[in-house]
Amino acid sequence: MDSKDYWAIAEHDIEIQNPVTDRKLRLLDDYCDIRDGLKVLDAGCGKAWVMLQWAERLAIQGTGLELNPHFLEQARRKSAERGLSEKLTFIDGPAQDFSPEPASYDIVMCLGASFALGSFAQAVDWMAAAAKPGGTLVIGDLTLKHHAPISRPDLHLPDDARDTIGVIERHGAEVSALISASDADFERYVSHHRHAVLRWARENPDHPEHANVLEQSRIDWTFYLKTIRPYLGWTIFVARRDG
Ligand SMILES: C[S@@+](CC[C@H](N)C(=O)[O-])C[C@H]1O[C@@H](n2cnc3c(N)ncnc32)[C@H](O)[C@@H]1O
């Protein structure tokens, strides 16, 4: 099964497609100094929960980049239902195919999709280039929980939050705030995936991709239990672009 279809099944039940709760995401209002007139770019926006709730309350102009047609359809439908189509534009395709006008966005966001822009450092470069001087970068990603050295090169673990801040700051932005998923937040996020897939499998026993979907879910669930749960967290870094 195409991974886009798999993720549409696994993320069927959730609107926020990262481990952070809605309550924590609302901290971005303050950390991004959100107000009328801002131009926002969201790479890998998924169902675009953050931009939708900003556009509902404020006169922002948002652009979402997304390649999964299931999520795009949902983002566009919700935007239309809430009368926000004038404020939000969704662009279909790989984020890297979009060439943002340099230094033109007040907020450049990428939650859980830095890989869509290359390495983490390349994602920060791409985002910093699109942001106005003094604009805000919002990047959420996996982080190593503890700095204590873990000798597991086989697991390809990411940096911890401190080293990730170092990468962002060497790439042209100063980190001013962090929002982290708790272990319980991450457990809830992954459990939603597992629960939705197992329900789909019960409801679609004759689907030609039945076994593949279950196998992918087993891999993801095992990755969570063996690697994420003991070693990893998930943090949003809010940073101000130099200038
Ligand atoms: C973990 S989800 C996060 C979605 C959303 N940012 C959120 O936090 O709710 C990652 C998203 O990136 C999208 N994605 C993956 N590769 C992409 C690419 N090359 N270009 C654009 N979007 C991509 C996926 O389809 C998915 O919607």
Mind explaining what this structure looks like?
With 243 residues, the chain is α/β, with parallel strands linked by helices. The protein is built from nine helices and seven strands. The chain has one domain: Rossmann fold (3-Layer(aba) Sandwich), CATH 3.40.50. The protein is 42% helix and 23% strand. Strands 3-2-1-4-5-7-6 form a seven-stranded mixed β-sheet. Helix 5 (69-81) links the parallel strand 2 and strand 3 (88-92). The protein is globular. The N and C termini lie far apart (46 Å). The model has no long low-confidence stretch (mean pLDDT 96). S-adenosylmethionine is lined by residues 16-18, 44-46, 49, 65-68, 71, 94-95, 111-113, 116. Residues 16-18, 44-46, 49, 65-68, 71, 94-95, 111-113, 116 line the site of S-adenosylmethionine.
Total domain count: 1
What value does the Rg take, in angstroms? 18 Å
Helix content: 40-55%
**How far is the first residue's CA from the last residue's CA?**
46 Å
Quick one: biggest sheet? 7 strands, mixed
- Mean of pLDDT: 96
Structural class from helices and strands?
Answer: alpha/beta
| CATH architecture tag | 3-Layer(aba) Sandwich
